[in-house]
Design goal:
Blueprint lengths: L28 H13 L5 H14 L6 H13 L9 H14 L3 H14 L8 H20 L5 H17 L7 H19 L6 H18 L4 H17 L7 H13 L3 H13 L9 H20 L7 H18 L6 H17 L3 H18 L2 H17 L3 H15 L5 H17 L3 H17 L3 H19 L1 H17 L4 H12 L11 E4 L2 E4 H6 L70
Antiparallel strand pairs: 1-2
Helix pairs in contact: 1-2, 2-3, 3-4, 4-5, 5-6, 5-7, 6-7, 7-8, 7-9, 8-9, 9-10, 10-11, 11-12, 11-13, 12-13, 13-14, 14-15, 15-16, 15-17, 16-17, 17-18, 18-19, 19-20, 19-21, 20-21, 21-22, 22-23
Length: about 600
C-alpha cells in the first residue's frame, strides 16, 4: 500500500521537535526508514519526525510504505501531538489501528485503539462511561490473545495500563473514590506482577515504569511515603531501559511528593538536574522544560517563604529568572498554550510585586488571551485581577474597574461566594477613584449583598460603609447616614466587638467628604496599602509617614507588594480532583486547589 502524502504527518501545528542532526542524516530513503523503525521500537519521542522524513524521501523516490510501517508512522506522530496539535491524536490513532489490522498486527491494533480512546477524552473530564467500557473490552481481548501467543507482553501491558489511566481519571466521579482508588491500586499491582518477569524487554520495562508512576500518582494524596517509593522506582526503571530521553511527568510528580513530605531541597535538586541533563539525541522538549521551570520556581519560592533557606540576592531573583525561562520555552515549536499562559501570569505577578507594572500589564494581557483559548476560569480571573491592580496603580482606575467587573462576573458563580463579593468591592473602589460615585455606590451595594449571602457580615458592613462615602458625594449626608445605620446593623449581626462597630460608625459619620482622585499609598503594618482601602477596613495607618504618590506617570514605576483584597483567589489549573495531576505535577491535595472550574489533564497517551 502506498503512503499517503507526508502531509498526513504534518498537522498544521508541528507537534514535535525536528530531531537531532537533520543535516547529517542519510538521504537514502531505506536508511531513513530503518532509522524510523528503530526509533519506534525503542519508543523514542522523535520517532514521529523520523517517519515524516522517511515518508518524504520514499515519496520522492517513488517508493511506498507498507501498511504496518504506515501504521507505526501514524502512531508515532499521534504520540507527539501536544499543545495545540493534541486534538489530532485520536483520529490518527484510529487510522493507525485500521492499518495495523490490515498488516495482521492485532496486538498493535489494540494498543492504537486504546490510545485513540484515551486521546479522545483529553478534555479533563475523564474518558466517559462508554469509552471506558470499550477500553475494558480491549483489555479482555488483549488478555485472551496474549494467552494464545497472538499479542506480546508489552502490547498487552500497554492496553491494561491505558485502561488503568482512564480509570484513574474517573476516580473522583466514583460513588466511593477511596474504595475505587484501592481497587485500582490492586489492579496496577497485578499489572506490575505481570510485567516484572519480562523486564528484560525494553518495551516492557517502559510500560512498567509508567505503571509504577501511575500507582505513585494514585497513592500520593493518601500515602505519600509509598508514592515516593513507586515514583523513584518509575524513574529508575526508565533509566534501566536505556532510554536517554527525559521522563518529565515522572520527575515532576516525584519532586512534588518530595516537597510535600518535607524535602524541598531534594525536590529542587531533582528539578535542577532534570533541567541540566541534555542527552545529545533527545534533549528536553520546550514545553517540558517550561513545566520544569515552573515547578522549580514554585519549589524555590515555597522554601524561601517557609524560611527553610535564607535567600541571597541571586536566590531572590531565581524564581523570576525561572518564570522568564518558562515563558521562552513554552513558545517553542511544540507550543503549549496552557503552560505559556500560566508562565506569563506568574511572571506578571512577580513583576507587579516588584513594582514593574508596565511589564506586568503586558504579561497579564497575553496570559488572558491564552486562558481564553484554554478555558480555565480561575486563571482568567487571576489574570484580570492582576491587570486591574497594575493599571489602577498606574492611574487608570476606569480601566481597572472594567477588568475587576469582568473578573467578578466570572467568579460570582463559584461555590465560594466571597470571591465574587471581594471583586465587586474592588470594582466599586476603582469606580470611586475614577470619579463615578453613583456607579461605585451600586457596586458597593452589590458587594454587600454578596458578602451577606456568604455569611460574612463584617465584610458586608465594610462594603456598606464604603458605599456611604459614595452616597454622601452624590445624595448628601442624610442619605449617607441611612447607609451607615444599615452598616451598623449588619456589623452587629456577626461575631465581633459591638462597641468597636459603634466607634467606627461614629468616626466615619464625622469624616469629611472625599474627593475622587487616584489613591494615596500609605505605610501600614502589612506593607504599602491604599489609604482609602485601609480606612474601609478600619486599619491603623500612618498617613504622614509616606507622602502621596503621583499616579499616571509615563515611567514603569509603581508601588509593589501583595495584591489588595482579603481573599486569596483560587489556584490556576489546580488539580480538578483528589487523584488528578496539574501542570506542576502536583496530585490533588499536594498543592493549593481551586474548586471553581474543571482543570485540564496533562497525562499523555503512553
Amino acid at each position: 500500500m502506498s503512503s499517503r502524502s507526508p502531509d498526513e504527518f504534518r498537522l498544521g501545528v508541528r507537534p514535535y521537535d525536528r530531531g537531532p542532526g537533520t543535516g547529517d542524516e542519510p538521504e537514502d530513503p531505506h536508511e531513513l526508514l530503518h532509522r524510523a523503525r528503530q526509533l519506534t521500537a525503542h519508543g523514542h519521542p522523535w520517532a514521529g519526525s523520523a517517519w515524516e522524513r522517511a515518508a518524504t524521501a520514499l515519496q520522492r523516490a517513488g517508493g511506498a510504505l507498507t501498511p504496518g510501517d504506515h501504521a507505526d508512522a501514524l502512531d508515532a506522530t499521534a504520540l507527539d501531538c501536544r499543545g495545540a496539535a493534541r486534538p489530532a491524536a485520536g483520529p490518527l490513532f484510529f487510522r493507525a489501528a485500521d492499518l495495523h489490522e490490515q498488516a495482521g498486527q492485532r496486538g498493535k491494533a489494540l494498543v492504537s485503539r486504546a490510545r485513540a480512546l484515551v486521546a479522545g477524552s483529553g478534555s479533563g473530564h475523564g474518558p466517559g462511561a462508554t469509552a471506558f467500557a470499550r477500553l475494558t473490552e480491549l483489555c479482555e481481548r488483549a488478555t485472551a490473545l496474549h494467552a494464545v501467543g497472538q499479542t506480546g507482553t508489552a502490547e498487552t501491558a500497554t492496553v491494561l495500563l491505558l485502561r488503568g489511566r482512564a480509570r484513574a481519571d474517573l476516580l473522583d466521579t466514583a460513588p466511593d473514590p477511596t474504595a475505587e482508588a484501592g481497587a485500582l491500586r490492586e489492579e496496577l499491582t497485578r499489572l506490575i506482577a505481570f510485567a516484572v518477569p519480562h523486564r528484560a524487554d525494553p518495551a516492557v520495562l517502559g510500560v512498567l515504569a509508567d505503571t509504577r508512576a501511575l500507582l505513585g500518582r494514585i497513592m500520593a494524596p493518601d500515602d505519600p511515603a509509598a508514592a515516593l517509593a513507586h515514583l523513584r522506582a518509575a524513574v529508575d526503571d526508565h533509566g534501566a531501559g536505556g532510554g536517554p530521553w527525559p521522563v518529565t511527568e515522572h520527575q515532576l510528580m516525584l519532586a512534588t511528593v518530595l516537597r510535600t513530605t518535607g524535602a524541598p531541597e531534594e525536590a529542587a535538586a531533582l528539578l535542577r538536574a532534570a533541567l541540566a541533563s541534555e542527552a545529545p539525541d533527545a534533549p528536553l522538549r520546550g514545553a517540558d522544560r517550561a513545566r520544569l521551570c515552573l515547578a522549580l520556581a514554585r519549589t524555590v519560592a515555597g522554601a524561601h517563604e517557609r524560611g527553610r533557606t535564607a535567600p541571597g540576592a541571586d536566590e531572590e531573583d531565581e524564581p523570576l529568572s525561572l518564570l522568564a525561562e518558562a515563558v521562552r520555552h513554552a513558545d517553542g515549536p511544540a507550543q503549549d498554550v496552557r503552560v505559556g499562559a500560566l508562565a506569563r501570569l506568574l511572571l506578571g505577578a512577580a513583576y507587579a510585586e516588584r513594582g514593574r507594572c508596565r511589564e506586568a500589564s503586558d504579561l497579564f494581557e497575553q496570559a488572558l488571551a491564552g486562558f481564553t483559548e484554554d478555558g480555565d476560569a480561575a486563571a482568567r480571573v487571576r489574570a484580570r485581577v492582576g491587570l486591574a491592580d497594575c493599571v489602577v496603580r498606574r492611574g487608570e482606575p476606569g480601566r481597572a474597574a472594567r477588568e475587576y467587573a469582568l473578573a467578578e462576573a466570572e467568579a460570582r458563580c463559584w461555590d465560594d461566594r466571597r470571591h465574587g463579593a471581594d471583586l465587586s468591592h474592588r470594582t466599586a473602589r476603582a469606580l470611586g477613584m475614577a470619579g463615578s460615585p453613583e456607579k461605585a455606590a451600586r457596586a458597593y451595594e452589590r458587594a454587600a449583598d454578596l458578602w451577606r449571602a456568604a455569611g460574612d457580615h463584617a465584610s458586608a458592613a465594610r462594603s456598606l460603609r464604603a458605599r456611604a462615602r459614595q452616597v454622601r458625594a452624590v445624595w448628601g449626608d442624610a442619605a449617607a447616614e441611612v447607609v451607615l445605620a444599615e452598616a451598623l446593623r449588619e456589623a452587629g449581626r456577626g461575631p465581633g466587638d459591638a462597641d468597636g462597630a459603634v466607634d467606627n460608625h461614629r468616626r466615619l459619620s464625622d469624616a469629611p467628604e472625599r474627593t475622587h482622585r487616584p489613591p494615596r499609598e500609605v505605610r501600614a503594618a502589612g506593607g504599602t496599602v491604599d489609604a482609602e482601602a485601609a480606612a474601609e477596613d478600619g486599619a491603623e495607618v500612618d498617613v504622614e509617614a509616606d507622602p502621596e504618590i503621583e499616579s499616571g506617570t509615563d515611567d514603569d514605576s509603581c508601588r509593589g507588594g501583595p495584591w489588595p483584597g482579603s481573599r486569596e483567589l483560587p489556584e490556576p489549573f489546580g488539580p480538578p480532583g483528589h487523584y488528578q495531576v496539574n501542570v506542576y505535577g502536583e496530585v490533588g491535595g499536594a498543592g493549593p486547589r481551586a474548586a471553581t472550574a474543571p482543570g485540564t489533564r496533562v497525562q499523555g497517551c503512553v
